[in-house]
Model the fold of this input.
Amino acid sequence: MKEKILTTPRSYGKNMPQLFEQLENAGYEVVRNTTGGILEKEQMKELIADCAGIIVGVDPLDAEVLACAPKLRAIAKYGVGVDNIDLDYCKAHGIKVSRTVGANSEAVADYAMTLMMAVARKAAMIDRRCRRKDWGKISTRDVSHATLGLFGLGAIGKHVARRAQGFDMKVLAYDPYWPEEYARENNIERADAETIFRTADFISLHLPLMDSTRNFVGEKELAMMKKDAILINTARGGLIDEAALLKALKEERIYGAGIDAFAHEPPEDPAWFELDNVVLGSHCAASTRGATENMGTMATENIIRDLA
Done:
């Protein structure tokens, strides 16, 4: 009887059906997510019961879910963030966990810059008004020569910093693991968190979600930000206190925000959908053909390797 591998990401194999063939040729039966969405805990529990491996996106794999998979030996993350996976449980039960490091960093950096531009120039609002044949001019803010503050200077943060140089932006960054040589060669100035919150025109989050970074941007940090500052999150839901951000946006205490990752997707508060100073994303920063092909290839190779 063939061992089973569950694949949950909606984009996995979408443009590369040969990935499913690769798993099957390696001797595995593939179980697919056919719901068209992110799986809930009860759905995950049912689907992983007989699986030896999982290629997973952002679907929940906490201890409660993992306890329903006694045959599980390997998890291949389709991406890099593992906050949806209980790593302690995996370590205690000998379950190998892999990531597709670097596979989507260029795509996410592109989207972070896209959100900066879209929020600053109010592109979505202008588009909506033009569709109503409202050709009135809307005053927006500049991007070029602004100050960009990066929280996280890993692969994605570095790519964003390089793109910002094309806009002649001053780049400040905060990262406990400081890449001294890279920062020096690319004119990135090291700064503490408070300096970035108080002085940056644009703030872009590229942090992992863990206990120390949960609600990293809260009421206190939002109060520090300039009135014309823009907050961007293409990293993980949970990094921002969303109730505090929603209040700040409603009161126009900051210029705007571009949010691609929410703690609960889609966000439950309907007020998010009524604001003109926020651009919403469906956790799609990595959803380009190139990035999904890279992630799919790496995740497939990782799961076959770890199960073998």
